[in-house]
Amino acid sequence: xxxxxxxxxxxxxxxxxxxxxxxxxxxxxxxxxxxxxxxxxxxxxxxxxxxxxxxxxxxxxxxxxxxxxxxxxxxxxxxxxxxxxxxxxxxxxxxxxxxxxxxxxxxxxxxxxxxxxxxxxxxxxxxxxxxxxxxxxxxxxxxxxxxxxxxxxxxxxxxxxxxxxxxxxxxxxxxxxxxxxxxxxxxxxxxxxxx
Length: 195
What we know:
two-stranded antiparallel sheet, 9 helices
């Protein structure tokens, strides 16, 4: 048996590092030497194709981290199967900076979209598997929100792949679907209660 608290600490550290590494590819070229404010502003604005994947990946990782802490378990210890799945999940998280760099540089190439979307789809699937094998899982709204978050990421990943066949340069916008969970929750809370 393995301490769940120790796994949670490792997870927090890996998410923090992965989220920090994302920004490393959003940089001005080494041979860029602006002569005035206007050139610098244009140079920074031209980073948009790399900044969008950074924002999306940071958001996806942030939502995955939040979803992980929403899963509540009364277990202090977990078994070997859970630990192996958790380590596989963390391996996928550590690869997000790489796939973000690839899609940031080659968002117009279908294979880059497939790599990124396939990666996020696998993260959502493995995360869902982890929920199913979490010992002494507490039921409730928090769990439904976690499941909705994973489902929206799966949907966004599949839509991105499909859009890449038609317009690869627009495919990344499909990942905005992954951010629909908080919007759906707020909308559901604002609905009038039927009596």
